Amino acid sequence: MIRCFPLSTSVLTLLLLLIWSAGAAPLFAQETPSDPSAGLTAGLDAEHGESLDPSALQSLNALHRALASKEQQIANVQQQLVNAQDQVTREDLAARLRELRAELADNRRQFDRFALEIDLSPFVEEDDQPFDWQQELSKLLKPILAELKSVTAESRAIGELRAELETLGKRKELAEQAVERLHWLLEQEPSDSLRTRLEARLEHWQRIASEASNRYTALDLQLQNRLEQRQSLLDETTSYARKFFQTRGLNLLLAVGAFALVFFGVRWIATQIMRQRKPKAEKQLSSRLALLLLHVFSVLGGLLAMMAVFNAAGDWFMLGIIIIFLIGIGWASINTLPSQIESVKLILNVGTVREGERILFNEVPYRVESLAFRAQLVNPELEGGSQQLPVRDLVGYHSRPAGRDEPWFPTRRGDWIELDDGLLGQISHQSPSTVCLTDLGGARIVYPTHRFLQQHPRRLSEGFRLVEHFGIDYRHQAIATDEVPRLMQAALEEALPTRLDETQLQAVSVSLERAGTSALDYRIEVRLDGTAAPQAERIRCAIQGILVEACNQHDWTIPFTQITLHQATS
Q1: How is 72-122 classified by DSSP, letter by letter?
Q2: pTM recorded for the entire structure
Q3: Looking at CB atoms within 10 Å, which of 382, 391, 483, 530 has the fewest?
Q4: How confident is the model at residue 406 (pLDDT cuts 50, 70, 90)?
Q5: Are 492 and 510 in contact (CB under 8 A)?
Q6: Do 452 and 496 form a contact (C-beta atoms < 8 A)?
């Protein structure tokens, strides 16, 4: 069975942009002027020798009259240009004449297209226009901005009214202040000539204040009416959603259906093709590459089908939204292109991580079970040790072939272990996230798995060794190298089996380790079976106790640390 997983969005978007630039871009090329007579050609389907449809003849007459009118306009402008006296008028008339001639040429093409019913494009020589991405982008954004403008029309109208009211309010206030000031100046008994001028200015400012007050009142009434008629935010949203689905719901439904048909159809075909191949064929590079291309085409073909539906329906708003969204994703993913390339190499099993090899992921070893659009990592020694993750999460990792007897985890459930921090306990649970230990007192200690591995656990369940140190006084130096080690070892071999199961004690050895500063130090090694691991701490205590009893039995002195003080002479 071939797994079908979604392709990385960034890789897909880059591929989409390449195909769109090659084939889909003409959708947004400069539109040719619409032909008002294109719909009339339906009436001109008569064969040679048959009578012409009366409606078609009327249309030709109408186009003829339009041509005659345009030719008369050109003749009039030409005559005006000849009679013009100044340079400015001549320039205006020349510009007008160029516009009329362009319109006349367009009308003549329409007349020929309608009358002759042939493709005139081979006879039209068009100048190559340089590509202007800003102009193309503005055409793409135009329907989107128009839709946004329609949605926010009421809010913008209210905002404009409020801004105009604020401006008129300031004018009204300042005009009233000017009127008050002029009244005050007239009360100061000015000269007759000054009074006349002040009264004229008073009349002027009173008129301005009155006009501002009237306009302010009218705009305030308009604003209040709009606010009263305005719907709540919920009602506006609901109304727009209802209108959106009424006008574009069918287009959206058809587009989603087209995408789903292509997407699932191509993946179903890919699954059927892979089923017909040999069982191990899906591991081959050719199969992986074919599967990758089919997945790419399923998404890319689905998007193109969706865009084709919107294009056929003339829904430039939805088409523009999709294209801008994809362009944005593509632009944002440019920086991650190297990562996407590495992801593709991993999918093809030619990257730095290979199937069947060993990888250290989050400081825990795993076997790479499978690599496709999702990777499966397995650790057989951990509970829940199988996890699936996007293949992009393995970018930057490296795998290697596993050793013949290389363990996948240092411990197993039920093992007794000892950590660097001195903790002795039994493994009760181990998973990719946590390891739980139960110590000798029954307490449960939980370690994050990577922290547990950093403690270098010693596995005691298959046998272990205890190392202890013991010292006697230098007065026994004569027998320190032979008799003392022999008697200590004999005492341990005789007493330890009484503290343990006979099968648990495997070997005991005692040797002089060093001549210390205060004592002759001995190294005691006791090898034990793994079943004795829970008693490790008790056995350490027992070793010290047995050796102390041996010292009492043989009159050996146990020294204490001696410090010699030397007094300095003046």
Answers
A1: HHHHHHHHHHHH--SHHHHHHHHHHHHHHHHHHHHHHHHHHHHHH-S--GG
A2: 0.51
A3: 483
A4: confident
A5: yes
A6: no
CA atoms within 13 A on the CB side of 122: 2
Classify the C-alpha dihedral 6-11-13-15 as positive or negative: negative
Q: Rounded to an integer, what distance in angstroms lies between the CA atom of residue 520 and that of residue 536?
A: 26
Read off the pLDDT band of 8 (50, 70, 90). Answer: very low
Confidence of residue 471 (pLDDT cuts 50, 70, 90): very high
Residue-wise over 205-230: b if at least 16 C-beta within 10 A, else e?
bbebbeebbeebeebeeebeeeeeee
For residue 206, the SS3 value is helix
In this predicted structure, the answer to whether residue 125 has a pLDDT above a threshold of 70 is no
Cβ count within 10 A of residue 483: 12
How would residue 484 be classed by pLDDT, with cut points 50, 70 and 90? very high
Tell me the sheet residues that pair with 469: 523
Across the chain, what does the average pLDDT equal? 78
C-alpha radius of gyration, the chain, whole number:
48
CA distance 139 to 552: 104
Long-range contacts of the stretch 252-257 (C-beta < 8 A, 24+):
252/318, 254/309, 254/313, 255/305, 255/306, 255/309, 255/310, 255/318, 256/306
As a whole number of angstroms, the distance between CA 95 and CA 103 comes to: 13
Task: Check if the beta carbon of residue 489 is closer than 8 Å to that of residue 507.
Answer: no
Task: State how far the Cα of 360 lies from the Cα of 350, in Å rounded to an integer.
Answer: 18
Residue 561 falls in which region: left (phi positive, over 0), alpha (psi -120 to 50) or beta: beta
**Tell me: the pLDDT tens digits for 262-290?**
888 888 887 777 666 655 555 666 667 77
Q: How far apart are CA 330 and CA 336, in angstroms?
A: 10
User: 439 forms bridges with which residues in the sheet?
Assistant: 425
Residue 493, Cβ neighbours under 10 Å: how many? 15
Q: In angstroms, rounded to a whole number, what is the distance separating the alpha carbons of residues 95 and 540?
A: 110
CB atoms within 10 A of CB 36: 11
| Both tokens assigned to 58 | 């009327």
Can you read off the two tokens belonging to residue 22?
A: 């090659």
- How do residues 31-80 score in pLDDT, each as one tens digit? 333 343 333 333 434 444 456 567 777 777 888 888 888 899 999 989 88
